[in-house]
Records
---
Amino acid sequence: MALEIERKFLVRDAGDTVLPDWKRLAEDPEGTLYRQGYLSRDPDRTVRVRVAGDKARLTVKGRTTGCTRSEFEYPIPLEDARRMLDELVLPPVLEKRRYRVPFAGHVWEVDEFEGENRGLVVAEVELESEEEALLLPDWAGEEVTGDPRYYNATLSENPYARWKTEGDRASETPND
Amino acid sequence: MALEIERKFLVRDAGDTVLPDWKRLAEDPEGTLYRQGYLSRDPDRTVRVRVAGDKARLTVKGRTTGCTRSEFEYPIPLEDARRMLDELVLPPVLEKRRYRVPFAGHVWEVDEFEGENRGLVVAEVELESEEEALLLPDWAGEEVTGDPRYYNATLSENPYARWKTEGDRASETPND
């Protein structure tokens, strides 16, 4: 088991320019395609199946307290993960492109969502402790650590595109 | 992934004698203690954490059709499984003792439940195909293949001891 301590931010100017600042800094300008789905979206015991490039993992996460969450992660055969995504997970499968972006001694993970979450770009950074000081890049906007709306499990069930129509997105657009 | 084809029977005279016939035939007269819990009890995507003796596994199962069910099983560290059983699974943890019982060319798995499922003894046998002929031992009683009440995930949520008080057990006792 690992304890995952991370902070999460909306990304500014996410879709405003062809090559936003964060993407210029990315190790991998094409990013890696992630496809993931959930066998359980229960926040006390989330179970995720993820295909990242040609690697697959099954991940169990406990409830988040502060910015810490217990996490159990196991590599699984790619073929198993594909079958689970096609046949077993709660629909829909969530797709995003992940970029690794080094900044000030940390490697940020920037997720550019696709499908019904297109337009949403979120940056996460893993810390050694909850108290660790963190230098924020210009493109890091509002902090959304612990906000359940931005859990990937929630985005799979209640995608960003639907927030607009429900009127609860107006004041919270990441491009504010 | 594996396709799990199995038939399940209640065991007759389960608690009537000190050493019932099936236990006399068991490879391991003490059986093996199983402790298991569920991260998802959804019958379309059950996720089970199991400690069997000193081995631990994480298992994902799809819906049963006929007596076939898709199953994905992964060994995990014992310590991870114990933490998940203690901290993450939907309570309560289900306990049973499993015996391997060879009979007529198959190895039957006989589960003697403990805790709130005490008194329930169930025998399962894995088949090569749904049509395979099967010689039944005398101690195999009513067939309950596909009966959701006898899914271990259900027994964890609605244990056998409670059936009595709900009055839905009278005609279905395994010792009939």
Note: Residues 39 and 89 of chain B are 5 Å apart (CA to CA).
---
Amino acid sequence: MRVAILGVGTVGASVANILQKNAGIISARAGEKIEPVVGVVRDLSRDRGVSIPLTDDLQSVLDRDDIDVYVELMGGVDSAFAAVSKVLKKGKSVVTANKAMLAYHRYALEKLAKDSSFGFEASVGGGIPIIKALKEGLSANHIKKIVGILNGTSNYILTQMMDTNADFHEALKKAQDLGYAEADPTFDIEGQDAAHKLLVLSSIAYGTHGNPEDILIKGITKISSEDIFFAKDFEYVIKLLAIAKVNGDKAELRVHPALIDKDNILAKVGGVMNGISVFGDALGESMYYGPGAGGDATASAVIADLIDITRGNKNPMLGYNSPVNALKLLPISDIRTKYYLRVKVEDRVGVLAKITNVMSENSISIDSFLQKPRNKEEKYTTLFFTTHTCKESDVKRVMDILERTEFVVNRPFMIRIES
Amino acid sequence: MRVAILGVGTVGASVANILQKNAGIISARAGEKIEPVVGVVRDLSRDRGVSIPLTDDLQSVLDRDDIDVYVELMGGVDSAFAAVSKVLKKGKSVVTANKAMLAYHRYALEKLAKDSSFGFEASVGGGIPIIKALKEGLSANHIKKIVGILNGTSNYILTQMMDTNADFHEALKKAQDLGYAEADPTFDIEGQDAAHKLLVLSSIAYGTHGNPEDILIKGITKISSEDIFFAKDFEYVIKLLAIAKVNGDKAELRVHPALIDKDNILAKVGGVMNGISVFGDALGESMYYGPGAGGDATASAVIADLIDITRGNKNPMLGYNSPVNALKLLPISDIRTKYYLRVKVEDRVGVLAKITNVMSENSISIDSFLQKPRNKEEKYTTLFFTTHTCKESDVKRVMDILERTEFVVNRPFMIRIES
């Protein structure tokens, strides 16, 4: 099988090198040799540390007749989609790690791939075989819920904040120094990357359509040391979660930081690692853990897809159990969960009574309350509340009202609680 | 696809009922209906809670021509092997959860299954798709090491001992009361069950031959409250581990209780849950977590195998990468690891010096030492040692010498340390 690698960065170089280094077991397992024959790069002057021939002429490679499978690692949405579409129309097979392209074009790609194979294991969870688990390992189950830690950068930052009491900016700086965060980390820390991956998983489990713009996405940039203080005191861990679950006849999708019980298995997924819990009606909870990024780890998933193609394993691509349970997206306003509220106030008589009144008047019932011991220097004190399950719109209204209340300093801050 | 279920106990009943309850998604995913047409039981008088026809005439079912796949859930080794062999010879496909049969006859079964499909996902880790992960998800990797918590009964007992300071017998009693341990729990608590599963995994990863009798198997029955005390004090967790790893040109297989770092992801696998860490040369560590037993969970894996058969996914069964790296078993005497030693002694002058001399004379170097504070009533005191990596034979010799030393009470107790 002859393979062209579109985009020879860290992952592309690992794919080429592992196909050569592990050629023995790979051909034994695939039943045939899998040969990387060409790599496409933008800048030919940079050394990629690979021994395969490189070219900067993408179109000529897309036009070649001697390529069986194209491995798309260019990144970006539209240019990648154009390149992949072109070869799929010629009946060529494609393997990709490009979750952004899938987040916007997955169903169009599914149509184009009807007569060929399209592998995207590497698009979620790096080398963790989560797509295969969902499509094949759990194929007997109605998937009730997927809860994933899908972004290693955010998870590293939050783990640092929990373990070392670093504030967000110190933790981000450390992540950047270690190469775990990019110079512009927005995409990772604002939840976009996790949202793209969540759309891929929910399309398999529920056949959900929709783009990132259609789902709730919150980042981790506003998490403060006070939130960490509360989480530790109440035995929670703060994680950036990507959640897809069945809610009535709809699929509820959301990406946001969440307080989870410290004994939840996902609470143990630390540093840059990823972990995905899947709840099936027959199996119950199973969890998949591993490196969510990195050249060799991601290449492991890309090559597993290539080997599956040689084995002729044909599995449906997305929403493969529809029309049985293809679900529409739940409107964001209908989301109901538990909440944590941090309210900074002037420390004077009657404040707590006033706040709790506002809450009950807006049908929010308090589950727990903590007033952080205030040291003399501080002019203000911070109140922490957790609520029972309630409507997000009610919580937002309470935050609006409190923000306008004279003894409240700044807008209250909210984190969802996932139990 | 017409399925016969040989053995309609908890798992068999779940297979029949889930195939009917989830028939919609299962046919959508399989591309055809998967229909349980008959179940074989020993005792027809007992109600199995299934709606499929039952019979106690195994042979007549094995002789039927209208069965496409046989699901073997009879348990036992030879009778199951005879039944499965008979239908495989007729070119029928088989799905089994029977690890004992596989531990002794897996390669014979592989030969017989040449022209049909043979699924055994349910034989290890209950519903966790670990076999699929090893065969397909990690197919780009040289598997360097597999470390598994593969027996839920033992894990529940050890978790109880760690969490509640119960002694072994109290924890076992509780496990039995909750139905997590059988009236005769020997097979689970002595490591046999985990060893059978380990042989299945190592056959996939390394193509290893050999029976349970050929590998190191130790149970958890001698773990004492003092060992728990030490483990907590030194931030270890005690788990029954099943380990398969490459050691030079050999495969090192062993099942035994082990001290592992409390931050190891496997340390978080509590209660009856199973967890398997797999280390690949490309991927690094990935871990798979879920219920290792139970009717519906195990049925989830059985049915996933059935769906794979309808999809025509043909993957090699065992040692599928041999001859590239089929490994012979490492002799037990060649195992080298770190050790924990518990030595009960008379509390008098010079004892510690004498013991440490014996150790150094036998080329065992001490990594850490703890003397448990002795309360006045006690006549004896307990010394705890951990060693650097050394040969098991040297540790055994030291234990022999100490056992014969007058100030030492009872034979010293040893637990391996896995880091």
Note: Chain A touches chain B through 60 residues (CB under 8 Å).
